[in-house]
Amino acid sequence: MARDRWHIVEEAGVLTVARRWPARFDVAARTVLPVVNKMRLARQVRQDVWRALRRLKGFAPVVRVAPEGGMLAVTAGGQVDGPVARAQAEAKIARVLADAGNRQRWIRWAS
C-alpha cells in the first residue's frame, strides 16, 4: 500500500516503510527501542536517516520495525542505486540511531 508515495506494509507485526518496493537494505544499522506506536516511530527515524544521507546519490530510505523481546527492533537504511561507501553510510545511520536526543524525541513523539 502506498501512502503519499511511500510503501507502508505491515505483515505479522513487522512494519516496513519504504520509498521503493520491494524494500531492499543495501546499507543498514539496527537499534532497539521501547514499545511505542510503530508507524510514528518509523516515520521519525526515516526522516532523520534521510536528513543524514540525502546527499547520497540514489538513496531510497527503508525503515523496518519489529517486535523483539518486549521491545522494538528498528532497522534503518535503504537502497542505494550506484556506488556507495557502505561503511561510511552505515556509520552515519548508526550515529543517527544512537543519538540520545533523537531517541528521546522519537519515543516522546511515538508514545
UniProtKB/TrEMBL annotation:
<protein>
    <submittedName>
        <fullName>Uncharacterized protein</fullName>
    </submittedName>
</protein>
